[in-house]
């Protein structure tokens, strides 16, 4: 893994920050020893690891996250999940809505329950590490991206009122209803960046109009080129059709390949030149 260079003061969007946080998202899939050792190599000697089980409508699952920091930046990263298990999370669009804890709209119940399992510990770690007013970055891939977005919302709309300086997600599914998305977009304009890789099916689920994405989308086309602006509907469908499976819940070879966090990291490295 390339050693990331985390920008010490996060102001707006940068590819270097995106690349570093994509690697932080990949690291979230590992065990506590690997995470703490790697974070130290990255110049973040403070690191706390969390893994908690919780009950949901599906079989028992767990949430894993870590918070790492130094004198300038605090990074929160959530682990994603295997495509086969993610299929269960995404299968029922209408039956899995729950009120946002801060009354901003509705959110995916499974994602909300997963965040509940670790959120108090994560918030406590962020509050304790951020004694110097450090920048806060929140990140995650796949399910981890959904948790990152929801965690940023809870921090801002809850009692702590913490506003993350950067929220970068990769292959994130839709997490909330349009009302919640609008509230989030107003608060996180210029701070939220949602990366989508060409045939990755996960960002297209659960389906609209019940669920809605937050802005701002950064899209990699079929050649791995970064499109900084949203494509037209026709152009987007043409790009995504390359290698797309007929059944969106099948999560076929191309959809899984494009969903992998290492593909996002490689595309970001290409974009950085």
Please, could you describe this protein's structure?
- The strands form two sheets. Strands 1-2-3-6-7-8-9-10 form an eight-stranded mixed β-sheet, sandwiched between helices.
- It has a single domain (15-272), classed as 3-Layer(aba) Sandwich (Rossmann fold), CATH 3.40.50.
- It is 38% helix and 20% strand.
- It has ten helices and ten strands.
- The chain starts with 14 loop residues before the first helix and ends with a helix.
- With 273 residues, it is α/β, with parallel strands linked by helices.
- The chain is globular, with a radius of gyration of 17 Å.
- The protein has helices at 15-27, 32-41, 83-90, 109-116, 119-129, 143-157, 178-188, 233-241, 253-259, 261-272; strands spanning 46-54, 61-69, 73-78, 97-99, 106-108, 135-141, 166-170, 192-197, 217-220, 226-227.
Keywords summarizing the entry:
273 residues; alpha/beta; Rossmann fold; 8-stranded mixed sheet; two-stranded antiparallel sheet; 10 helices
